[in-house]
Amino acid sequence: MRQEIVKAIDENFGRPDVIAGVATGGIAQAALVSQELGLPLIYVRPKAKSHGAQNQIEGVLESGQSVIVIEDLVSTGNSSLIAVDALRERGCIVKGMVAIFTYGFEAARQNFLDHKCPLVTLTDYEAVLQKAIESNYIQESDLESLEEWRLNPASWKQ
């Protein structure tokens, strides 16, 4: 998977100065990617620690550096974009985010647009549904209900 993330970075953003993992799900993938690219690794917490140095961002980071953010899963994008905001507040140039998976919720699309942060994912909900149909894990008749859920998961009732 790390090679696919590296390929997505190369094709969509070019080489950054730093790789940032979103705590906690994105850290492991970010570590593999930073090693593959020979770049420094940092990670970003949802909020600053309440003890010690009280850092929200861990690792060596300088204002003006370009950063690619790595995430495992994007649902609405809110927690992922907290990391983007923290990096920008430190004076970094966030080139974009690469995530393993997204549900493709409209809220996420709008949130990333509002934050002017390009999002590239390795796979998405539609691809998973297609694979589930091909492998007979679900039937075509299940698609309507599953799409209904994706359009509005908060109010979905089966």
Give a topology summary.
Layout: H1 2-12, E1 18-22, H2 27-37, E2 41-44, E3 57-58, E4 66-74, H3 78-89, E5 93-102, H4 106-114, E6 119-124, H5 125-134, H6 143-151
Parallel strand pairs: 1-2, 1-4, 4-5, 5-6
Antiparallel strand pairs: 2-3
Helix pairs in contact: 1-2
Q: Largest sheet, if any?
A: 6 strands, mixed
User: What is the class in the CATH system?
Assistant: Alpha Beta
How is the largest sheet built, in terms of strand order? Answer: 3-2-1-4-5-6
Calculate the terminal CA-CA distance, rounded to whole Å. Answer: 34 Å
Q: What's the tally of helices?
A: 6
Parts with pLDDT < 50 across at least 5 consecutive residues? none
Q: How many beta-strand runs?
A: 6
Which architecture per CATH?
3-Layer(aba) Sandwich
Helix/strand-derived category reads alpha/beta
Please bin the fraction of helical residues.
25-40%
Account of the protein in words:
The protein is α/β, with parallel strands linked by helices. It has a single domain, classed as Rossmann fold. Helices cover 39% and strands 23% of the residues. The chain is built from six helices and six strands; from the N terminus they run αβαβββαβαβαα. The chain has helices spanning 2-12, 27-37, 78-89, 106-114, 125-134, 143-151; strands spanning 18-22, 41-44, 57-58, 66-74, 93-102, 119-124. It has a six-stranded mixed β-sheet with strand order 3-2-1-4-5-6. Helix 4 (106-114) links the parallel strand 5 and strand 6. Helix 1 crosses helix 2. The radius of gyration is 17 Å and the shape is globular. 27% of the residues are buried. The mean pLDDT is 92.
